[in-house]
Specification:
alpha/beta; Aspartate Aminotransferase, domain 1; Aspartate Aminotransferase, domain 2; seven-stranded mixed beta sheet; globular; binds 4'-deoxy-4'-aminopyridoxal-5'-phosphate
Amino acid sequence: MAEARQILSLNRFDGDAAPDLSGSVAALVKRRNATFGASSVLFYREPLEIVRAEGVWMYDSSGRRFLDVYNNVPSVGHSHPRVAEAIARQAATLNTNTRYLYDNIHTYAERLLASFPSELSNVVFTCTGSESNDLALQLARGFTGGMGVIVTEMAYHGNTTAVSEVSPSSFRTRAVPPYVRTVPAPDNYADPVEDVGARFALHVKWAINDLEKNGYKFAALLVDSIFSSDGIYADPPGFLKAAVDVVHRAGGLFIADEVQPGFGRTGTHMWGFQRHGAKADIVTMGKPMGNGFPMGGVVTRPDILTPFCENTGYFNTFGGNPVAAAAGLAVLDVLRDEGLMENARVVGDYFRAGLRALSGRFPAIGDVRGAGLFTGVEFSRPGTREPDADMATYVINAMKDEGILIGAAGQHANTLKVRPPLCFTKEHADIFFAALEKVLAARA
Ligand code: PMP
């Protein structure tokens, strides 16, 4: 079996193995290495210098355009004029710390909360997904009095000290601390069972028992409800509910990390946990919330937030500032006015149907799965379900040469992570199919 891969190593530029880079790309890589040192992480065998982007297209320094099927941050489209204009207008009017009253943050809070079940009636604004998950952990641990947290084996939830502890896909050499348990992702391709939800719930139950047996009170199950870093597991809708019910029966909380599936990406619901009919106690948000303007948030119940604020309190200098509120409101407006959630459903279904048709001709495509505009394409050695990471790496780099940007996901880095801006159309999907067909035929 192939070894598990660390998340930052996926589709990573390797300076030692790089072909001769030229021109401004070579100069920038050199400057970057000199200043960022070991923390520099770039995509692709030959990194890209991107100078502008619009809708689903990104343009490099030579003027070449690339179809972006990777970036979920510019969720309503790169450089969307309504979002850009809202940010610019607010920045030219007022941007200050968050302990003054200003109207637009309250309009935004009300609009955002209206998309959640009514019991989730409080919101705290942050600047990143990591900050959101950090606060969620503090809330859950405060509320339950426990330290024990359960996450999936290849989870990624962010980069603070506490959140790194529950992000095993970040680890190169370290392991999760004793009060964290990992459970296998609900993968029904590598190891199929009749009821993937029941199996996932059983793993969660075992993990809760194991925590308690070792003296760690259970606090929360924290999952990304589309399991993006694990390899994208969306189906059948509803499968997550059984595990969440186990969590609640054990007195724990369910933290739904909506950084990836949130804001309509899965096509049928604004939030991924809603696709599963699961009851979330804390919901965390980030990436697409400001279409690139750094903002995040935590939505929860007052009975969870109030005791925490009485004991600890929370202040975030930039979270929920007037410019963030303007960006967030513009994103909600565009999502509604351009029907982007519905577009995600319709085009996502079309996209996966086209990929499944291709998989009939190219046995390297082992599985096609996902929801809305979040699709995983898993490569296996033909006739088996053994992961084929070399094929995924080949496809990612060859598709780049064809002018299409994709990323990798999953424990074995053999799954394409396809999650374009939500303004992706059927015509864009057709461009993708033609390129993938060419790239796979060249290797067949
Ligand atoms: N949760 C999930 C599921 C994520 O994918 C990420 C980022 N990749 C985060 C949290 C952290 O978000 P940020 O990088 O904004 O801190």
